[in-house]
Specification:
Number of helices: 34
Distance between the termini: 67 Å
Shape: elongated
Largest sheet: 2 strands, antiparallel
Number of strands: 4
Radius of gyration: 34 Å
Strand order of the largest sheet: 1-2
Helix content: over 70%
């Protein structure tokens, strides 16, 4: 059943791709049941996962490569799967009211279904290679979704940037998976977990950590790879909500949580993960205060909130894991609802610029209530869920000074200090969202659209999502017991006993919260002066500047072009020389490095006069081809080489190969002569310089000697038992044929043969297309009006 759930979104996407156009603007209602059913399935698995008997599926797909269709659901995967399908359900519903029937609805729902299926695949994969496959599929599908309005420049730019950065991280993660799989002897996640001590003791441990973190940080938009997320906000608001608050950006957190069991508990891991996380927290919140676009504020806020969660993962204690997973859940509720509120504001007013918006609560009271609930939760105010997880974050930041970051000494106090400062900034931009847009001032009269409350198709799903900020706060221990505790067990390997409450006495985290509220209120009351001050700060070179210099301005492309032009000269002779030299150097280099340059003349068959004769014929024919200055003799000489090879097959008692060779050579000659009239004249180049002739001679001799060495070394090194005996013994039994060669081609190596046939078929199609594209010249009119065809 689990495999069906993973595959179902892809199947529906394929169905909609072919038949969605017949559904018109009702396609959203056809797609909506998918996330509902997926959510329902995972919700019914809560009891099973708590009991340690979550669903699983296993099928050997490519066993020789260790790649299997292996899926399982533990506490961590269940939490993420519920978020993916639950928020997906809200987004699908909201999109029905948000998107106009004039949009490419078929594309939208196909892309978002592929994305949902890919995310479900990431969090349920129990094989590292399968996880990588789904990981890259999320990057590809998000590229399509971010660039949904591809007619505009900004969506294209954002889609390209997100794909470029996240795919680089994906390649890094793939390299780390290969290294871990080689050490563990398997790509199955349980086997890799069991090999954690061997991985940590490996000299490749540092590289594995850096590659994994590169994959996680690029996906979760952490500094310095955060630059793709603000530009990805050019996507439709439902996409921004789904990808960039609840799902895709949290894939990096999922990866870190899984890899903590394998790579964690070291100073390297604690230092980098918590350092990058806390740095992203303060940088994202600082940038959010400078923005004037509501979605830009939320985008930078997402960078900040993800940094908070990642910092908690880096702290490494069980309490920190609990805070991280709890805030992960809370963030999906309040940030997702704020994105949907932003979409409703944009839909109703025609702008997201906070400098043009004010007093919207007077005409959009329900939307204003939703905004107040989401902003208060994100600011960490009671009685909302954000207050609970923010308190847990502050407590963990204080405890880590004497915990896993104690090796930093006094510098460890920077973490709670930055946590407080970043939270102050968060409080400020939450006040900006609520008061400047909805509460303060009058409704402007110069907006593109007359402000109004949006339709119920957008209000109802937003209300359901934002209500979770109160539901979770009122019943935190139900979520802790059923979702957080199994997830913590999956991450830390230890059972967790959680009790979440609003009041724990007058303690240091509460004092920090009071400082955050006081300092944040003071800054907000002087926000215009504060914003003017930070706007005057000198602009430093950023990751964005580097990306824009390399990619959109084509400096990277121009540098690559100059490099390519050094060897892509357009001369066939140069290409042959480079390829031949590379072949010689690689083959001889491997032979020398591996000590395989061993030559033995034992067990050689005698050479008959016929073999010498035909060898001489082949040599003479090859030289003749190079010397002829007319095409017909050259074609005959080429045919002579092929026919001579067929005689060798006869001598070696391989009549089937001889007949095949004769047939191929005959057909080739016929084709040459059929196409003879269409071939250009055979021009001989002017005599080459003497230096070129010498180089050509050296390369030719080197290639000939290398091929000879390959044959002699292959004969001399008997490292493995020949497979010929296996074919002889099993051709009749397993293949059902007496002709061993045919059985090898059709049965034992049937996939190879099918591949070769496919290549030939594709080449034939390509030739046909090229011939079909030949433009016939227009007929010329002669005197008297007659047409002359060339």
């Amino acid at each position: 059943m689990l495999f069906v759930v993973v595959a179902a979104p892809f199947v529906l996407a394929i169905i909609l791709a072919f038949f969605g156009k017949y559904l018109g603007n009702k396609i959203g209602w056809f797609a909506l049941p998918m996330p509902v059913l997926v959510f329902g399935y995972f919700f019914t698995q809560i009891a099973n996962v708590r009991a340690g008997s979550g669903p699983s599926f296993f099928y050997q797909w490519l066993p020789s490569f260790g790649i299997n269709l292996s899926f399982s659901v533990n506490g961590l995967g269940l939490l993420f799967a519920l978020l993916i399908s639950g928020v997906g359900m809200i987004v699908f519903w909201y999109s029905i009211g948000y998107l106009s029937h004039k949009e490419r609805l078929n594309n939208f729902y196909c892309f978002i279904l592929i994305f949902m299926g890919a995310m479900i695949g990431v969090v349920t994969s129990a094989n590292l290679m399968m996880m990588y496959l789904f990981w890259e599929l999320t990057s590809f599908s998000s590229f399509l979704l971010i660039g949904f309005w591809y007619e505009q420049e900004r969506p294209r730019y954002g889609a390209q940037k997100s794909l470029f950065i996240t795919v680089i991280g994906g390649f890094a993660m793939f390299a780390a998976f290969v290294l871990m799989g080689n050490i563990a002897g398997s790509f199955e996640l349980p086997a890799v977990l069991a090999a954690a001590p061997a991985i940590k003791a490996s000299p490749l441990y540092v590289w594995i950590v850096l590659l994994i973190l590169l994959g996680a940080f690029t996906k979760s938009a952490q500094i310095p790879f955060h630059i793709w997320l603000p530009d990805a906000m050019e996507a439709p608001t439902p996409i921004s909500c789904y990808l960039h608050s609840a799902t895709m950006v949290k894939a990096g957190i999922y990866l870190l949580a899984v890899m903590t069991q394998i790579l964690g508990d070291t100073a390297l891991w604690f230092g980098i993960v918590s350092g990058v996380g806390i740095g992203s927290l303060i940088w994202g919140s600082y940038r959010a205060m400078k923005m004037n676009d509501l979605k830009a504020i939320l985008a930078n806020s997402t960078i900040s909130q993800l940094g908070l969660i990642i910092a908690l993962v880096g702290y490494g204690s069980q309490a920190a894991f609990a805070a991280a997973l709890f805030h992960l859940l809370n963030h999906s509720a309040f940030k997702g609802s704020l994105f949907l509120v932003t979409g409703m504001v944009d839909h109703a007013t025609g702008t997201r610029d906070i400098r043009r918006l004010s007093g919207l609560a007077k005409v959009m009271p329900v939307t204003a209530v939703f905004a107040a609930m989401g902003a208060a939760a994100m600011a960490g105010l009671p009685p909302f869920n954000g207050f609970l997880s923010k308190e847990m974050f502050l407590e963990s930041s204080l405890e880590v000074v004497n915990g896993n970051l104690a090796f930093l000494g006094g510098a460890a106090w920077l973490f709670p200090a930055i946590a407080v400062i970043g939270s102050v900034f968060t409080f400020v931009y939450c006040c900006v969202i609520l008061f400047r847009v909805f509460i303060v001032g009058d409704v402007p009269h110069d907006l593109p659209h007359h402000p109004h409350e949006p339709e119920k198709m957008m209000l109802v799903p937003t209300g359901i999502l934002v209500s979770l900020t109160l539901v979770i706060a009122v019943f935190p221990n139900w979520f802790a017991e059923n979702l957080l505790a199994p997830a913590i067990l999956a991450v830390s390997g230890e059972a967790a006993h959680l009790h979440i409450a609003f009041w724990h006495g007058f303690n240091l985290p509460l004092i920090c919260t009071l400082i955050i509220i006081g300092a944040g209120t003071l800054i907000y009351l002087n926000f215009d002066k504060w914003k003017a001050a930070i706007s005057r700060m000198p602009k430093l070179i950023s990751s964005n500047d580097i990306y824009d210099w390399l990619i959109p301005k084509n400096h990277l492309a121009h540098g690559g072009e100059r490099l390519i032009n050094t060897h892509m000269t357009g001369r066939l002779r140069d290409y042959m020389a480079f390829s031949s030299l590379a072949f010689v150097l690689v083959v001889l280099g491997v032979m020398l490095l591996r000590g395989a340059l061993v030559i033995s003349f034992d067990d050689l068959a005698p050479i008959s006069p016929f073999e010498i004769l035909w060898a001489v014929v082949i040599i003479v024919s090859a030289i003749a081809i190079c010397r002829f200055d007319r095409r017909i003799p050259a074609i005959f000489a080429l045919g002579m080489i092929g026919y001579s090879v067929s005689f060798f097959f006869v001598i070696f008692r391989a009549p089937d190969l001889a007949l095949t060779q004769l047939l191929v050579e005959t057909v080739s000659l016929v084709l040459f002569f059929l196409a003879f009239r269409y071939l250009p004249k055979l021009f001989k180049d002017k005599p080459a310089p003497r230096a070129h002739n010498i180089v050509n001679l050296v390369i030719s001799v080197a290639v000939g000697l290398t091929v000879t060495l390959i044959v002699m070394v292959g004969h001399s090194n008997k490292m493995y038992q020949t497979i010929a005996d296996y074919y002889i013994q099993n051709a009749k039994i397993l293949g059902g044929g007496n002709n061993i060669v045919n059985v090898i081609l059709v049965d034992f190596r049937g996939l190879d043969t099918a591949g070769e046939i496919s290549v030939i078929a594709l080449a034939a199609i390509g030739v046909y297309v090229l011939i079909s594209l030949i433009v016939k010249p227009e007929p010329r009119l002669l005197e008297g009006g007659e047409e002359q065809h060339d």
